[in-house]
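Workshop exercise sheet. Pairs work together: one partner reads the sequence aloud, the other fills in the structure field after running the prediction. Swap roles for the next sheet.
Pair: D.N. / O.F.
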Amino acid sequence: MRRIERREFTREASLAFLAGVVVVISDCGGGGYGGSSSDGNSGNPAAGNPPPTSADGSKTGTISANHGHVAVITAAELQAGGVLALSIAGTAGHDHTVNLVAQAMQDIKDGKKVAKESTSTQGHTHNVTFNADNAEPPTNY
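Structure field:
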C-alpha cells in the first residue's frame, strides 16, 4: 500500500469528492485527543493542520486540538456560496460538523479570518479557523 502525505491526501480527496468518488481511508494513524478545545498546535503541519490555501483555490481550516481532522472548503463550494455543513472527519475515526452561514462563506472566500466551533462528538469540540494567517482578529460565527 502506498503512503501519502496529508497535503496530497487532502487534494486528492477534495478532487474525488467533487467527482462523486467514494474515498476509503485505512490506517488512521496515531494520536488521541486531549479533550480540550485548544492544544497550541493550530497551524502546525506536524500536528495535522495543513497550509490554509491550495493551488486549486480551496481553503483549509486550522483545527484546535487536532487529532486527524481535516477541514477543507473546496473552490467549488466557495464559488457556490450559501450555507455549508462541513464535515471534518479526516482520519480521526469520528466526525464533527462545522456549520457555516452564507456571510461566513463570503468572508472566507474574501480572505477574512473566520472562526467557528464544531459540533460536539465524543465529548469534545474543535475550533476551526479559516484564513488563520490573516493578522486581523477572527469573526466568530
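Discussion prompt: The beta strands are 59-60, 62-63, 72-73, 84-87, 97-100, 114-117, 127-130, 139-140. What would you look at next?
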